[in-house]
Amino acid sequence: MSNATVAESAKDKDAKPEKARRPASLWSDAWHDLRRNKVFILGSILVLILILMAAFPSLFSSVNAYDPSTCDLSNAREGITSKHWFGTDNLGCDTYSRVIYGARVSVIVGIATSLISAIVGGGLGLLAGYYSRWVDVLLSRIAEIFFAIPSVLGALLFLSVAGRENAGAWIVVLSLAVLAWPLILRIMRAAVISAKNQDYVTAARALGAGPGRIMVRHILPNAIAPVIVTATLNLGVFIAAEAGLSFLGVGVQPPAISWGLMIGDARRRFLEAPEPLIFPALFLSITVLAFVMLGDAVRDALDPKLR
């Protein structure tokens, strides 16, 4: 064996222990756990299917060639057949195609509300936790005002003021996000207060880093994990809330298609035709369950106390 080969082999041996000694971060450990978590894998598959269904509903509805807006009263409340896989509703619309297109509203409301509440609540919580004093007092008191409003009652009031004719998916998102951000603010505030007293923040401040750089580069990456967990868990909550508001008649309005609207319309003739109620309710339950599974898996992976 040549001297070059021996030297190269020794270099490789020295490199391996150095790589092994490299400290793992919270995010790499979390991803390592998530890849081996069956609950996360199953939840991710279901969520991916739902997102594809919401983004490209024609891929799923084209198999039976029925348009969700085309209705035939002569086929009203028809049971499951080879033509109508989920039967038809009170107006003779194909329930299968309407269930597929109804996923879009639910996914939009769930994801958009979680993102808006996380961005607004997370940003304000970062400011409140870092600056403390009057900034913390002001933002915390404002958040407590919103906390005093019951979620469902507040959303009902907001949508009633907006008017049923204006109640689209984005109005529902706004009504839910207005009441959801204070929880994220509290979670982020507590995480920032804990992180800003760590040694790495003290060292960054001693080296002359400004407040903006400290918050964005040092505190935020170490305080955002609980916000991500809460936002992920809230996805299923917001989807169920949208369905409940639409069921009560104050959410999205026709001609929009929503699982909550379908359930509300089908409940009047449930004994005559149960399919138009059962299948939207089943898809709604599966969607909420998928996002809850995803949130539970992310929480288990990001919470060091559960390791």
From TrEMBL:
Subcellular location(s) of the protein: Cell membrane
Any one Pfam family match given in the protein's UniProt record, by short name: BPD_transp_1
Region: Disordered, residue numbers: 1-20
Keywords in alphabetical order: Cell membrane, Membrane, Transmembrane, Transmembrane helix, Transport
All residue ranges annotated as the ABC transmembrane type-1 domain in the record: 103-295
Keyword Zinc: no
Listed Basic and acidic residues bias regions: 9-20
Regions that span the bilayer: 39-60, 105-130, 142-161, 167-188, 223-241, 277-298
Signal sequence, start to end: none
Membrane association type: Multi-pass membrane protein
InterPro entries, per database record: BP-dependent_transpt_permease, MetI-like, MetI-like_sf, OppC_N
Any one cellular-component term (Gene Ontology): plasma membrane
An individual GO BP term: transmembrane transport
Transport keyword on record: yes
Family per record: Belongs to the binding-protein-dependent transport system permease family.
Protein name as catalogued: ABC transporter permease
Species in which this protein is naturally found: Microbispora triticiradicis
